Amino acid sequence: MADPTFTVERCPGLYCGRILLGGNNYSECGACPRGYQPNEQSLCLACDSEPTFYDWMYLAFMALLSLILHWFFIDYTNRNKTAKSLIPLHVSALLESVVAAILTLLLVEPYGSLRVRSCPVTKLSDWYSMLLNPQPNYAQKLYCTQEIVYPLYTIVMIYYAFSLLLMMLFRPAISYKFTQRRGTKSIYAALYFHPILIVLQAVLSGLLYYFFSYMVIVVSLITSVIHLCGCDLKSYSSVTKDIFLNGRNLTILVGHWFLHAFGIISLTQLTQLEIHLPILALVPFPTLFFILTIQFSHPSHLEDVH
Asked: Which of 201, 226, 229, 268 has the highest CB neighbour number within 10 Å of its CB?
């Protein structure tokens, strides 16, 4: 048992710490074990908290990112095919992502449970401890690289690895048996974008953590407008019919609404329900505004005026 009145010299740098060896004996300054964080006295303490609501939203965003890319490439590489013929591929991508998420949660501490033990995130530099190794007196560098944001950094990579593995195990058979090999190109696309996502997580995870909610709101709004521009815009009735009575267009539109709401929820964290719930009710407003202003903004109508 360590003496609570015993003090040790603080380690240099933000993320170097000492490990209790027994009694009042501590290790030299260095990286804390995985799942530990140095406190203000540079003592490595085990993290015993759980991910915050915002942490879960970040993990959900990274999981949705790969799922949406799967769905996009399934649709994009089969643009001349009917939407119904691609349903098995879309369902397969969804099930692969769900199973990958469950397996990932089971393999992080506490093992075999869907609960997650995590370390709190306090600032951007927590994601980049490898860039902050101190060099006392400009002499030998002290390497204290560790996963300060445990397990938010590695859990996403584990999920992507499982997602890629499950896709390679099941998607080719589903593509061959149910869709006449229509999923081949989307499988090849996934073999490219999964490694890209892993590199993205490795390099830009800290920035994504703090800005993903803004990105989701802006990108979902822009892509929604791009999709609506591809519909029949001749009149109010034609655009309404093409958007709301076409199964594919309606599914894509509802997906954009979901992402827009997801971004708002992650940004506000619903801390004030009396304010944030009415904001969520306005999610369909950009679409309605687009439809109502077609008569004023369509290029052909502007040419008529000239």
From this structure: 201
